[in-house]
């Protein structure tokens, strides 16, 4: 293996919530385990989310402390491998000079979820990789851009995307027949969330016989519109299976975040509700919530489903790595993932019910299959080695 100097970006400090931290830091942790000289950079140019007061703030003291604490407990060797660059250009973690030295020697820059400002100094890194974790949302403005009809914000965003060299998407069907996600300007290669398997081992047997998930009900912004079709969030898909708890004796629990969910209606239909922020306040509480669960049950965003994107949830991958089976809505991933054991994909209420009951009937089989599935498809050693090789090809 050739040792590379790698920079990965994300939102682990900007949005200090458990699932977000795991999504981005597993890139840092995974590349570090592979022996690369890897650093985490957060430079959005904007303020950071304050989950306690549900607002955005300029002072990043809490956010940097949150990130530093996570890295120290996860892998002490990572604590001196991060830099958060605030909206006032203050550098937290690595100093301005230390960051400049890392950028000067970097071989590859991974801009995950188009989160990082592509400053001129970053643009000089030899290989700049864009990773789309939100298919359809990322690409929705491309047709209007190509016709010269996109608004100023969309033009600026797509121009920034075009400054990268290689493009990957969690929508593994993007560019394939039947997938409605626009391609246009970009050649999207498939990739998926890396999971550092050792970080999710040791959860033991579940402590509650509950199918759980952590979610935001509906995005604040309007869903993406492509060629006159408006796509939406999870709320649109949940409405199709709203009566599901009344058709099974299984406990179906939602750790609800934002999006103004109809709590009274959900409880009336039999869904058990808990506070999503309480279950996500730290990466460790988020992991414990998954460990406590028997399995996951969840829909996907309508934009992922209706477009047949092939997207697979980062959160579901963490459930699987913990040995928790998942019953999740098919976005087209069943075309290339070997589902049926450990992962039970559904397209309608009847399929969702069948998946839940299958897990309950033969839990031990699906538990073992879940871990095997995660190791086969999401193990960071495999995912990141392939991602790096494809990026440098």
UniProtKB/TrEMBL annotation:
Keyword entries, A-Z: Transferase
GO molecular function annotation: transferase activity
Name this polypeptide is given: Glycosyltransferase family 1 protein
Lineage: Bacteria, Pseudomonadati, Thermodesulfobacteriota, Desulfovibrionia, Desulfovibrionales
């Amino acid at each position: 293996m050739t040792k590379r100097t790698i920079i990965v970006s994300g939102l682990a400090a900007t949005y200090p919530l458990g699932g977000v931290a795991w999504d981005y830091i597993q890139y840092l942790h995974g590349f570090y385990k592979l022996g690369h000289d890897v650093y985490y950079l957060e430079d959005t140019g904007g303020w950071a989310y304050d989950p306690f007061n549900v607002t955005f703030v300029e002072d990043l003291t809490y956010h940097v402390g949150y990130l530093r604490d996570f890295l120290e407990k996860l892998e002490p060797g990572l604590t001196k491998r991060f830099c958060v660059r605030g909206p006032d250009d203050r550098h937290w973690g690595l100093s301005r000079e230390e960051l400049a030295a890392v950028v000067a020697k970097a071989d590859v820059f991974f801009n995950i979820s188009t989160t990082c400002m592509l400053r001129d100094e970053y643009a000089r890194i030899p290989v700049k990789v864009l990773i789309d974790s939100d298919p359809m949302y990322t690409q929705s403005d491309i047709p209007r851009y190509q016709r010269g009809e996109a608004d100023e914000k969309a033009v600026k965003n797509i121009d920034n995307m075009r400054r990268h060299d290689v493009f990957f998407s969690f929508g593994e069907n993007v560019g394939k027949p039947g997938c409605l996600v626009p391609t246009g300007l970009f050649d999207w290669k498939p990739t998926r969330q890396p999971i550092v398997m050792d970080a999710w081992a040791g959860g033991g047997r579940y402590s509650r016989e509950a199918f759980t998930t952590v979610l935001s009900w509906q995005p604040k912004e309007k869903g993406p519109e492509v060629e006159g079709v408006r796509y939406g969030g999870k709320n649109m898909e949940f409405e199709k299976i709203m009566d599901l708890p009344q058709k099974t004796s299984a406990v179906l629990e939602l750790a609800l975040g934002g999006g103004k969910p109809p709590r009274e209606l959900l409880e009336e239909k039999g869904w058990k509700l808990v506070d999503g922020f309480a279950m996500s306040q730290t990466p460790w509480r988020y992991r414990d919530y998954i460990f406590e669960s028997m399995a996951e049950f969840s829909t996907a965003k309508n934009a992922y489903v209706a477009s047949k994107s092939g997207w697979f949830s980062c959160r579901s991958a963490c459930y699987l790595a913990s040995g928790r089976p998942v019953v999740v809505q098919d976005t087209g991933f069943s075309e290339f993932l070997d589902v049926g054991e450990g992962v039970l994909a559904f397209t309608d209420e009847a399929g969702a019910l069948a998946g839940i009951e299958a897990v309950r009937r033969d839990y031990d089989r699906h538990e073992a299959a879940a871990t095997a599935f995660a190791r086969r498809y999401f193990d960071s050693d495999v995912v990141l080695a392939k991602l790096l090789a494809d990026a440098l090809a």
